[in-house]
Write a structure and sequence with these properties.
single chain, about 400 residues, alpha/beta, Rossmann fold, 2 domains, seven-stranded mixed sheet, six-stranded mixed sheet, 13 helices, 15 strands, signal, Peripla_BP_I, Amino acid/amide ABC transporter substrate-binding protein, HAAT family, Leu-bd
């Protein structure tokens, strides 16, 4: 099992202990240079999927989150050093639960960057009881319920909101009669998360849902499902998968000569899809929640500068790396505004002060409040042209 922050963690722990011993009387504010006067180290947990069913997108996401914390080395946040303690749970809910308990009890983290829908939803009662702010890679609509999930924060549009926005775009742009749609998803909490909400929204907007097919998260063949779907001849099919199954769907659809327009939600979208889907990816439309590294945006400057210190290049990274970076950045921005940056309650309060946080174009601005932890409902759309995703909308909602 791959350990996140191997050598760096050991160095940072030593720095944190030495800094804590040196004391410091005044509470810092925002970013400061670490000069040996740190009050201590605030620890954050990372529950990542590197080798499981969503490891194709989970690995670059984890790397982006790690990189953001690494970029803060030598900085004080509200007078404290920060570090992340993360590991691979291989997309297994029992492993996530074990890891959560370790992070809470042994590592004594103040907040956590999580990952999957099934594990995030399974943990939310514990998260609430333990008062640990939790920003996950899951954008499940269920996490919007602040009474049940008072410490969960959604850093991007929910899967349901993504699907609603895609359906709204279909309604506004389809020509030639009333459009019909199908859904292709996997039989996990992640896969099923937006389906009922999307079906309801389609019905409310006069769009007929003619079919839905379940395709395994790691499927290498989707021929039978696509043949069944073809009988209903949908104009559009919305995909809720990661890169691997999405590539399988697109390749088999091309082989079968299916001309349905495929639209993937955010984890189906990204550069990692193109090498495995090949020319079958041409014309695929993806929901974009976070920027591509090749976009000329102000927020890319700090990532580029950090990578240069590591002898790496921005063009070597992908969109999911940006996604992990942004999730970690949002958490730390909340810590900066916290009255007490060392506790979960304090960091939650800081996150709830974020209002239209400008992420330099890396993602839609996010806002939280004491009664709303859904940061945004905005997405963009991109189409694969000549082997590259090209954005063709501004940020849109529904």
């Amino acid at each position: 099992m791959r350990k996140v922050w191997s050598g760096f963690l050991a160095i940072l722990l030593v720095v944190g202990v030495l800094a804590a011993c040196s004391g410091g009387d005044e509470k810092g504010s925002g970013d400061e240079k670490s000069s040996g006067g740190a009050k201590g180290t605030v620890k954050f947990g990372g529950i990542f999927d590197l080798t499981g069913g969503t490891g194709d997108v989970g690995t670059p996401y984890a790397e982006g989150a790690e990189a953001y914390f690494d970029s803060l080395k030598g900085e004080l946040i509200n007078g404290y050093n920060v570090e992340i303690i993360g590991d691979d749970y291989a997309y297994k809910i029992p492993e996530a639960q074990k890891m959560y308990q370790k992070l809470k009890s042994k590592d004594k983290v103040s907040a956590i960057l999580g990952w999957g829908t099934g594990d995030t939803e399974a943990l939310r009662q514990q998260i609430a009881a333990d008062k640990l702010p939790y920003i996950s890679g899951s954008y499940s609509e269920n996490l919007k319920n602040i009474e049940e999930s008072p410490y969960n924060f959604l850093a991007a549009a929910t899967y349901s909101d993504q699907a609603r926005s895609a359906i709204k775009w279909i309604k506004d742009n389809h020509s030639g009669g009333s459009p019909t749609i199908a859904f292709l998803y996997n039989d996990t909490a992640f896969g099923k998360s937006p389906i009922e909400d999307a079906k309801k929204f389609a019905e409310e907007n006069g769009i007929e849902v003619v079919d839905e097919q379940v395709v395994d998260l790691q499927a290498l063949d989707a021929t039978s499902q696509l043949l069944n779907m073809e009988k209903k001849n949908p104009d559009y099919a919305i995909i809720q998968q990661t890169w691997g199954a999405t590539a399988t769907i697109l390749k088999d659809a091309k082989k079968l000569g299916i001309d349905t327009q495929f639209i993937g939600l955010n984890w189906a979208t990204g550069e990692g899809l193109i090498p495995i889907a090949g020319d079958a990816a041409e014309g695929f439309i993806g929901v974009v929640t976070h920027a591509f590294p090749y976009e000329d945006l102000p927020g890319m400057d700090e990532i580029k500068a950090y990578l240069e210190t590591k002898g790496e290049k921005l063009e070597e990274k992908d969109q999911k790396f940006i996604q992990g970076w942004v999730s970690a950045k949002i958490m730390i921005e909340g810590m900066k505004l916290a009255d007490d940056p060392t506790t979960g309650e304090g960091i939650r309060g800081g996150l709830e002060k974020l209002n239209n946080l400008d992420l330099g174009g890396l993602a839609a601005p996010v806002s939280f409040s004491s009664d709303n932890h859904a940061g945004t409902n905005q997405i963009r759309l991109a189409e694969v042209k000549d082997g590259k995703f090209e954005i063709f909308t501004e940020y849109i909602g529904y």
